[in-house]
Amino acid sequence: MNSGEVSTQHVLLGLLAGGARHGYELKRAHDERLPQARPLAFGQVYATLGRLQRDGLVVPAGQGREGGPDRTAYALTEEGRVALDRWLATVEPPMPHVASTLFAKVVVALVVADADRARSYLIAQRRAHTERLRELTALKAAPSASLDDVIAADYAINHLDADLRWLHTTLDRVADWHREVHS
């Protein structure tokens, strides 16, 4: 399991650290505890549980019905707890490469379009980022906001803020470039 990317396996191990759960409970807990993350698909949860069981990190811990089909609960093994502890203790290295659709679009816009079109894209993107910042700020201020909601919003706000600073700097650079080319 790679520590350099979001690891569904490790997140599920962490959710199982508090006790046995079945796949539906794990999906719901993931989506509640990581409110700004991409929701997990049920198929992904069950496929991941299958790999974790195959690798000896979880074991079936009984079945329940709860008004629906039989559901197998899974529990963390000692080996699973060790893998989780190792993952939690591993410092994440800063990303070595820029892997952003936003960055790629701006570069491609500059390659295939003129500066005016690139500038229009940058302005529209800045507007979208600013609107998302407003939404996240409102989410944090909501009386119903949980700690998970607030820390997820803080994380997203900080990333959006960095993107906005980059968009502003890039707009300035494109304007400077446009002036140099057309002088």
Automatic annotation (TrEMBL):
It comes from the Bacteria. Residues 12-85 form the Transcription regulator PadR N-terminal domain. InterPro entries: Tscrpt_reg_PadR_N, WH-like_DNA-bd_sf, WH_DNA-bd_sf. Signal peptide: none annotated. This is Transcriptional regulator PadR-like family protein.
